[in-house]
Amino acid sequence: MSKHTTVSYSIGELAKEFDITTRSIRFYEDQGLILPTRKGQTRIYNQRDKVRLKLILRGKRLGFSLAETGRLFELYDADKSSATQLKTIMDLIAQKKNDLNQQLEDIQAVLIELTGLEKNCQDALNLIKK
């Protein structure tokens, strides 16, 4: 008879693995994004919490707010096979992609302006040196 063991992690282990503070992890817990079990005062995180933490951090890098990430988790948890839920998730993703594309266009425009300003400054500096 084989034993079924559940992999668990301490808050310190997750903080070290993801290079974040334990305070950040507790904040995500306070926001309801991860739900560790407790043994006395000790938080015990499972594989689901670890995956969610990874998704939270990836979402942050991609510009998702914690509220948006939480909404995606809620929709996914509600019914993974519901066409309505999946459509809603896809709509949220499409909106985020649109936002990011707009930000990219804005950044490209600012870079063009900065390059022009830099050239004007260099030209002015060259005139002063003559």
TrEMBL record:
Residues 8-75 form the HTH merR-type domain. InterPro entries: DNA-bd_dom_put_sf, MerR-type_HTH_dom, MerR_fam. GO terms for molecular function: DNA binding. Keywords: Coiled coil, DNA-binding. It holds the Pfam family MerR_1. PROSITE patterns: HTH_MERR_2. Gene3D superfamilies: 1.10.1660.10. The keyword Repressor does not apply. Residues 90-120 form a coiled coil. PANTHER family: HTH-TYPE TRANSCRIPTIONAL REGULATOR YFMP, REDOX-CYCLING DRUG-SENSING TRANSCRIPTIONAL ACTIVATOR SOXR. This is MerR family DNA-binding transcriptional regulator. The lineage of its organism: Bacteria, Pseudomonadati, Pseudomonadota, Gammaproteobacteria, Alteromonadales.
